[in-house]
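for the writeup, i need someone to sanity check this before i put it in the appendix. the sequnce is what the collaborator sent (i think, or maybe the updated version? ugh). structure was predicted straight from it, no edits. if anything looks off just tell me and ill rerun, i have time this weekend
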Amino acid sequence: MRDAGRAICTAGVLAAVVLAVAVAPARANVRSQALYARGLIPFNGGKWDDAYRLFDRAVQADRADAVALYYRGLAQARRGLSAAAIQDMSQALQLNPTLPHAALDLGVAYFDAGQYPEAKTWLERAHAQGGDRPTAAFFLGLTALRLGDNAAALTYFDEAKAAPELKPVADYYSGLALARQGQTDAARSALEQTARDLPQSEIGQVAQRYTTTELRRPSMPLAGPLAKPWSLYGSLGFAYDSNVVAGPSESDVSGRPGISGKDDGSTEIGFGGGYTLLDSDLGSVRASYDFYQSVHFSLTEFDLQGHRVQLLAASAPTGMVRYGIAGTYDFYALDYQSFYQEGLGTPWVSIAEGSDAATQAYYTLRGRDFFRAPFNPGRDSINNAAGLRQFVALGDPRWALGIGYQFDAEDTVSNGPMGNDFQYKGNQFDVDVAIPVLAETRIEVGYLLRFEDYQFVNSRPNRDGSFVRRHDVGNRVAAAAVHDLTEHLALTFDFIGIINNSNIPNFEYDRNIVSAGVRVVF
């Protein structure tokens, strides 16, 4: 007889999977989200192999996408590969502690693998969260039976009986626990109730015969092949910029001569990859490298080349609190000559709030060093930033909302006029939302509002010719879309709109960037 617990697990997961949402501290790759959205169709149809292939493609598109890893783990569990399921779901919870139902599903995977103490830990967590309480109680009862605690098993099965779909099977296992305690009449009554409720099922027929007084230990499934620890990508696109600025779009170097005041088109080339250096019960460590090159049609002195090396470390998925640190080194060349370098360190902590929300707190220390005049040495600086982000589930695995606040202080190394001009304290508010459009298309939109209050009287005059402290208000709107063409090929579209208002004309500018391209991922 197949273990009836697996049948309950399948029913529970089918109901749960359509409710899982991505609220990870780090936003997921748009292509991976589209792929796992497609995978839900065969998954909910019971086509585990087809679903696994799509979920696996989603993971290859973005190994930091917690939901893609979670769904691949669910598919592995349905295929009977519990060890692979445990690995995927553990990593998913490490990346995103707020995944709904993940604690329950990981506990079930450990149960199926025969690792009952680990199963108990995760099932107790799911039971405490409340959303999956009856199902968690049922599997805690099964786990207690495997561990020989019949009294605890009966308590959990009684709680599970509150769910109509669980009651017949909970009656069956209650009968087995009662039989082990020598309560023959009570055991017979419970088993006969199961036989009446499920007369045509295998478990109902076994209960009717009443020939079993202890549960079979589920067979240990063979571990499936581990997911590859590496990922690679390449991209090619074309962009139009209404006001070309020195520096990357997310960290431009404002102020003349950083702002060209001219529009231009460009070709954009990128490639990179990542490798998981460590993935254990204690945590994980991943390294990555990214390359970017823009080649402008006319303003070639603004051609930008970027190199980024990053090391990410995160704690293992235990409890409701996750923590980690990201270290980043960026090097930029402007017109193929060294421009500036910067190093960033970001420790963070994330606290889950039930199954539908999480709060992340972080601190970032950034050191920036310019190589070329007039930016060097006046723009060399140390920046300290602290922020909070709230992630909220919106009821669908493809919808997620993030709201954030950050305070930062820029302290320039130089105390001369150039340095003092750029020493500020800033407040930043942002909101972003991931929105499904089609099965293979997903967009993300966001808005950022930033206030910068500079600390010294600026060396450049304001509109009436007087010299005052600088005050800026920046507005940024961004949108990104990805549409899958094949397993490895996708179309991309991005838009960034910037309006920077300042009381000093030299620092006022508008900028609109539109880009489209293709991306290859392996």
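The CA atoms of residues 69 and 88 lie 5 Å apart. The chain has two domains: 4-209, 230-521.
thx in advance!!
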